[in-house]
Amino acid sequence: MLFATLPAHMGGRDFASSYASLVDLIAPSNTSVHVVDLGCGSGHLLQLLHEQGAHLRLTGVDFSIAEIAVARGSLPTDVRLLAEPAQSMSIPDQDVDCVLSHLALMVMHDLPQVFAEIHRILKPGGRLGAVIGRRMLLGEAHLAYREVIGRHAGSGLTALAAEETRSLDGWRMLLDPFFESVQFDDLDLPWRPTPSELCEALRYTYDIDRLPVASLPQIMAELDEAFAGLVDGEGRLTTGWGLRRIAARSRNASGAS
What integer pLDDT is reported at residue 130 of this predicted model? Predict the structure, then answer.
């Protein structure tokens, strides 16, 4: 799990990973704090949260039954897991202190309904924290990547994400009806891979996942060739992943439309 192992930098702050930047949003407390990981996948963020102490009551939500099964096999039994859509959760109204999400919101359908549902389950003033995509790769590798993928995907490359998620103004429009004190921070994950290491990591990204399987060998060969022209004297690229962290507070019910 690449994002779990790469240090993340946000302004003048350093984190062990992009996941850790979300854990940082949970304030110390002497009382029980209910935290939901939305789009929890295999449960890495939930594991980090569980290590913070018994005061956290943890719930993971993911639409994928397979991912929930993987998470159930690795997480402590006191972590509750729900295989259900983010647009319609079984969690009671105003039951949650904090909702976190790591690289999941951008690919969810009907985001206005997702945010309405997050607002419904959050207590007034409850916290939302999310890591979303910003820039696929840092440095020159990004342009090389876009050129190769663009040749194969054309205008359909961005079809997975809703139009609103492609700009900060779009995100603000989605969040504003339900949240206040919204803050966006760039989150960089520097990395110095070889071309082959970067190509292997890209196989598991959303863009590559949408391309025809039959085209993948050719695409990977073209990416490897493009990246090879950018390596330093040690045969490595100066690149990384460009993410963004969102932090916000739930509006009171009277302030949400």
Answer: 98
Q: Which pLDDT does position 215 carry in this prediction?
A: 84
Show the beta-strand stretches assigned E in 64-219. 80-83, 96-102, 122-135, 179-191
Whole-model pTM: value is: 0.92
Residue 39 · residue 86 · CB < 8 Å: yes
pLDDT at 155 over 50: no
- Contact indicator for 115, 87 with CB cutoff of 8 Å: no
- Say whether pLDDT at 70 is over 50: yes
Half-sphere exposure of 155 (CA within 13 A, CB side): 0
Positive or negative torsion for Cα 147, 243, 251, 35: positive
Half-sphere CA count of 208, side-chain side, radius 13 A? 17
